[in-house]
Amino acid sequence: GAVVSQHPSRVICKSGTSVKIECRSLDFQATTMFWYRQFPKQSLMLMATSNEGSKATYEQGVEKDKFLINHASLTLSTLTVTSAHPEDSSFYICSARDMQGSNTEAFFGQGTRLTVV
Amino acid sequence: EDQVTQSPEALRLQEGESSSLNCSYTVSGLRGLFWYRQDPGKGPEFLFTLYSAGEEKEKERLKATLTKKESFLHITAPKPEDSATYLCAVIPQGAQKLVFGQGTRLTINP
């Protein structure tokens, strides 16, 4: 399957600082990328959908000013958690879809464990 | 509303004991159904895509099947390394985003 690389895998930051998470599709072009948040022993919760070159679409209840998403190229999307607080501590996962032909599969990054202290 | 329900929530088997995981869905037109495996602290790993009723796919000890209302993930003679959470998701027609079930936590005891 296609490879999606997410970096960093773990990050610890101080309350009030910002953290950037990168998501790259390594061997395919991803016109659409997705950002998820996952709480312990729960399924994935979609935060936003980003299309290359346009503004991200946020799910209801997700603060767009806190979770800034940029999808400037067909292989890179970034999620910036601004002014992070302990309640933002979570597991964040990105996903990308290969839009060539009729493919519908979405491939996931390794995830980023964010701890805000 | 598009919905995916997985059962059971958790399943504990002995090594070699075959079983099936269920994924029931209600969706306004199915574009595709997906199975993923997720290990603790990792992102989901793609397993299968199914597109139409009657379709089956296999990979090692896993076989996925699809009907118009549900999908099964059959695990034959599982090994401890098959222990993981298995996630089912669908893409409705005309949609971009996946709709996920809550997952089944599978534990295979040696």
Question: Could you explain how this protein is built, in words?
Answer:
The complex is a heterodimer of chains A (117) and B (110). Chain A is an all-beta fold and 117 residues long. Helices cover 0% and strands 52% of the residues of chain A. Chain A contains no helices and eleven strands. In chain A, the strands form two sheets. In chain A, strands 2, 4, 5, 6, 9, 10 and 11 form a seven-stranded mixed beta sheet that branches. In chain A, β4 and β5 form a beta hairpin. Chain A starts with a strand and ends with a strand. Chain B has 110 residues and is mostly beta strands. Helices cover 0% and strands 59% of the residues of chain B. Chain B is built from no helices and eleven strands. In chain B, strands 2, 4, 5, 9, 10 and 11 form a six-stranded mixed beta sheet that branches. Chain B has a five-stranded antiparallel beta sheet with strand order 1-3-8-7-6, with no helix packed on it. In chain B, β6 and β7 form a beta hairpin. The chains are: A mainly beta (117), B mainly beta (110).
Short structural summary:
The complex is a heterodimer of chains A (117) and B (110). Chain A contains no helices and 11 strands.
Largest sheet of chain A: 7 strands, mixed
The rounded Rg of chain B comes to 13 Å
Number of helices of chain A: 0
Structural class estimated from helices and strands of chain A: mainly beta
The topology string of helices and strands of chain A comes to: EEEEEEEEEEE
Overall shape of chain A: it is globular
Number of H- or I-type helical stretches of chain B:
0
Low-confidence stretches of chain B: none
Outline the low-pLDDT stretches of chain A. none
Distance between the termini of chain B: 41 Å
What share of residues of chain B is helical?
under 10%
Shape of chain B: globular
Tell me how many strands of chain A there are. Answer: 11
- The helix/strand order of chain B is EEEEEEEEEEE
Could you tell me the radius of gyration of chain A in angstroms?
14 Å
Q: What do the pLDDT scores of chain A average to? A: 92
Pairing-aware structural class of the strands and helices of chain B?
mainly beta
Please report the two chains with the greatest interface, counting residues with C-beta closer than 8 angstroms to the partner's C-beta: A-B, 25 and 21 residues
Average pLDDT confidence of chain B is 96
Number of strands of chain B: 11
Oligomer: heterodimer
